[in-house]
TrEMBL record:
Record's keyword terms, sorted: Cell membrane, Ion transport, Membrane, Nickel, Nickel transport, Transmembrane, Transmembrane helix, Transport
PANTHER family referenced in this protein's UniProt entry, alphabetically: DIPEPTIDE TRANSPORT SYSTEM PERMEASE PROTEIN DPPB-RELATED (PTHR43163)
Taxonomic lineage: Bacteria, Bacillati, Bacillota, Bacilli, Bacillales
Name of one Pfam family that matches: BPD_transp_1_N
Record's GO cellular component terms: plasma membrane
Subcellular location: Cell membrane
Protein name: ABC transporter permease subunit
Alphabetized PROSITE patterns for the sequence: ABC_TM1
GO molecular function terms listed in the Swiss-Prot or TrEMBL record: dipeptide transmembrane transporter activity
Record keyword Membrane present: yes
UniProt family annotation: Belongs to the binding-protein-dependent transport system permease family.
Organism per entry: Salinicoccus hispanicus
Membrane topology listed for this record: Multi-pass membrane protein
ABC transmembrane type-1 domain sequence ranges: 95-292
Entry's transmembrane regions: 12-30, 103-123, 130-153, 173-192, 229-253, 273-292
Length: 306
């Protein structure tokens, strides 16, 4: 296990380097001069040149990249063009909010998706199976921003039950979590159903039933555990998608998370914040995939990690 983890960590190095190169390149290919934005359109050329010199924008691109990489390793993403505050000070509190939203949405998606998938697999071809899969198809097809707007219309404006905006109070958590987690729950339900059907048809499940083992024990102890590997893969991917997909959800519900920070920074052409925030999301995605790979061994001892 230790050898596998070390090998996977070493394999992450080129991936993360590729991410930093991509983020750095995209920002430099975007039209606009950060020095002009900081100084103002009417600033004299001498002022603009002084800012370019201070930011190192006159250096060759490879020098700028290695400076960016070295600073990023120390969690130094530069300072915001808009207010000259360190980028990390902007990202840290916003990332914690987005992470909280993602975790709550993931819990909602896992619980709902697993239960729906198990029921659908156990009652294959019944009305319950068809109904769950139809609802899952609708959940998968609905964009989270549209679902969010509909939830606000129904439960906030029409019924007045829940708060339509903000984050922190219990009544502010429900709608964003449902909006962000519904599509993930649908994907998990479909994968759970498919994986459970494959496992339920195995000989050892029929043997357990023939021995008189309770159906609840057969489903949850024997079948579900062995059906979880593909489901865990989907869960790991969905966690990354939730981090990235929170941009629209946070905009709809006016949540001051990382996604909304990225949108605001793009509109204000605040390149350092965009670079830092995108890099944090990308690294989080890679780390989650590493955790998923490691979890395979705990779910099934027969999985070869070598």
């Amino acid at each position: 296990m230790t050898t596998f983890i070390i090998r996977r960590l070493l394999q992450l190095i080129p991936v993360l380097l590729g991410v930093t190169i991509l983020v750095f390149s995209l920002m430099h290919l975007t039209p606009g001069n950060p020095a002009v934005i900081m100084a103002g359109e009417s600033a004299p050329q001498a002022t603009v040149e002084a800012i370019e010199q201070r930011l190192g924008l006159n250096d060759p691109l490879h020098v700028q990249y290695f400076n960016f990489l070295g600073n990023a390793l120390q969690l130094d993403f530069g300072t915001s063009i808009r207010d000259n505050i360190p980028v990390f000070s902007h990202i840290q509190p916003r990332f914690l909010i987005t992470l909280e939203l993602t975790i709550y949405s993931m819990i909602f998606a896992i619980v709902l998706g697993l239960l729906a998938g198990i029921v659908s697999a156990v009652r294959q071809y019944t009305f319950s199976d068809v109904a769950i899969m139809v609802v899952a198809l609708f959940g998968l097809s609905m964009p989270n921003f549209w679902l969010g707007l509909m939830l606000i219309q129904w439960f906030s404006i029409n019924l007045g039950w829940l708060s339509p905006t903000g984050w922190g109070d219990p009544d502010q958590l429900v709608l964003p979590v449902i909006a962000l987690g519904t599509a993930g729950a649908a994907i998990i339900a479909r994968m759970t159903r498919s994986s459970m059907l494959d496992v339920i048809s195995q000989d050892y499940i029929r043997t357990a039933r023939a021995k008189g083992v309770k159906e609840r024990v057969v489903i949850f102890r024997h079948a579900l555990k062995n059906a979880m590997i593909p489901v865990v893969t989907v869960i790991g991917l969905q966690f990354g998608y939730f981090l990235a997909g929170s941009v629209l959800t946070e905009s709809v519900f006016a949540i001051n998370g990382l996604g909304r920070l990225i949108i605001d920074a793009i509109l204000q052409r605040d390149f350092p914040i965009v670079q830092g925030a995108v890099l944090v999301v990308a690294v989080s995605f890679v780390v989650v995939n590493l955790v998923v790979d490691i979890s395979y061994r705990f779910l099934n001892k027969r999985v070869d990690l070598n």
